[in-house]
Every structure is written in C-alpha cells, then in structure tokens.
Design a protein that fits this description.
By secondary structure, the protein is of the alpha/beta class. It has a single domain, classed as Aldolase class I (TIM Barrel), CATH 3.20.20. The protein is built from 12 helices and 8 strands. It has an 8-stranded parallel beta barrel with strand order 1-2-3-4-5-6-7-8, surrounded by 4 helices. Helix 1 packs across helix 2 and helix 1 packs parallel to helix 12. The longest helix is centred in the C-terminal third of the chain and has 19 residues. The chain is globular and about 45 Å long. The structure holds SN-glycerol-3-phosphate. The site of SN-glycerol-3-phosphate has 14 residues, from strand 8.
Length: about 260
C-alpha cells in the first residue's frame, strides 16, 4: 500500500510568534503547490505560536499543516499550565507530538501517561505523532527492538484498531537526537520494519501497511533521501534542521 510521506518540523522551544510567521511564509513560498500532492508537510511550533500559524495558513490558504508538541491528558479543568486536545483542535491542529524522549526524560513521562495522551489526542480528532526510541545503552546491549516495540504497544494499549489507524509513529533513537549522529538507513529500517510488524501482529497487516512510521534524529537535507528510500520509513520528524527555512524546504524537496 502506498503511504504518503510526512515531513514534520518539531521546532521544540524555539521561535516566537513573529519568527514563526516568517518561517512559515518562507516554507510556504519555497515549495510549489504540486509538491503537497506527493508529500505532507507539517510544522510543530510551541503553543504560543500556533494561533499565528493558524491565521497565516487559513488566510493564505496554505497547504502546509501544523500541530503541537504536547497536550494534556485531561479535557479541561484545574490543571495549571496544561493545554488540552480540545484547544488544539479548535486551533486547527492536525497533529500533536506525544511521548517525545525529551518529555520522557525531563518531565518524567511514563508509558502510562503517554497512553493517556494518545487517547486524549484521538478523542479530539488529532493525529498523535507517537515517539519511541532507545537510549545508547539499550542499543549497545542489542535490546532496541524489544524496547521500542514495548514502548509502542504500551502507548497504544486499550485502543481499537480504527483508532490506531490515526496514529503516526516516529522512531527517534535518543542517541541520534540533536547529536549530529544520524542512524544509518539500515538502523532506521530495522526498527521501523519491526514496529510495523508488531502493529501487524496486533492489529492486522492491512492496518499496519497503511500506517506512517517516521524516522527522527539529526535528519538534514544531506541524509534525508537515503532514509526515506527505506521501505518502512515514511518520512521524517525533523528538529534542528526545521528551524532554517532554506534547509527545511531543501530537505522536503529531497524527501
Ligand atoms: O523530534 C525531532 C527530534 O527530536 C530530532 O531532533 O535536532 O536531532 O533533528 P534533531
């Protein structure tokens, strides 16, 4: 089954709303309209920029999509500092990142919480970009497949197959994030294929074949083409390289 690739730029905690507008304009005017028929492009700005991105995308009828980097597991109420899936949906978000290794590491997010956030995203019609990935010691011990598969299945626990179909999976080995040390295409393919096979065993081959599995970790215009050539890599979750309009559009064009 042909899967439409997705290139998503995770801006992390970078760019204010004025800088966000400038970057989105640069991306939008550098990629021809016909490009979007082949590849989906998304930006994932900080919460404070999303309203500005929405205004620009709606006003100029841009084909670019956008989303957030996190959401609350709760719908509303006394949860100071949290942003709900309902709020993100109202802002026109298509995606929301869930379970990024930086949230797991710096905010103590467990598989159980990631599962609640995946449910919250789906409940509000958002596609979770569910991140899984091993640290270096796990890879060196040869346990990366077991580790990432277990993160994946834990995050999807209790969901029905039709819900799982709306999830985008992102394999982001922690040792490759922000380090300049990209996984080889063979490394990325090995894990992405194993994740697809786990999805197939649990939810059926047809569903697994239709799901997008991205690679993330030091993706740049110089390495993206070889990564997305892999059978089971359906695009990229890009950090640092998504902050530079020229580099990001070059990367998109090469994907
Ligand atoms: O979510 C994207 C990510 O963690 C990879 O970051 O800077 O290595 O591309 P980077």
């Amino acid at each position: 089954m042909a899967r439409k690739p997705l290139i998503a730029g995770n801006w992390k905690m970078n760019l204010n709303h004025l800088e966000a507008i400038a970057l989105v304009q640069k991306i939008a005017f550098s990629l021809p309209e016909k490009y979007y028929a082949k590849v989906d492009v998304a930006v994932l700005p900080p919460f404070t920029d999303i309203r500005s991105v929405q205004t620009l995308v709606d006003g100029d009828k841009l084909l670019l999509t956008y989303g957030a980097q996190d959401l609350s597991p709760y719908d509303s109420g006394a949860y100071t500092g949290e942003v709900s899936g309902a709020m993100l949906a109202k802002l026109g978000c298509t995606y929301v990142v869930v379970g990024h290794s930086e949230r797991r590491e710096y905010h103590g997010e467990t598989d159980e919480l990631v599962n609640k956030k995946v449910r919250a995203a789906l409940k509000h019609g958002l596609s979770p970009i569910l991140c899984v990935g091993e640290k270096l010691d796990v890879r060196e011990a040869g346990n990366h497949i077991e580790h990432t598969t277990s993160q994946l299945l834990a995050a999807l626990k209790g969901l029905k197959a039709e819900q799982v179909a709306n999830v985008v999976v992102a394999y982001e080995p922690v040792w490759a994030i922000g380090t300049g040390r990209v996984a080889t295409p063979a490394d990325a393919e090995e894990v992405c294929a194993a994740l697809r096979s786990a999805l197939s065993d649990k939810y059926g081959a047809e569903l697994a074949q239709g799901m997008r599995i991205l690679y993330g970790g030091s993706v740049k215009s110089s390495n993206v083409a070889d990564l997305v050539k892999c059978d089971n890599v359906d695009g990229a979750l890009v950090g640092g390289a998504s902050l530079d309009g020229e580099e990001f559009t070059k990367l998109c064009a090469l994907a």
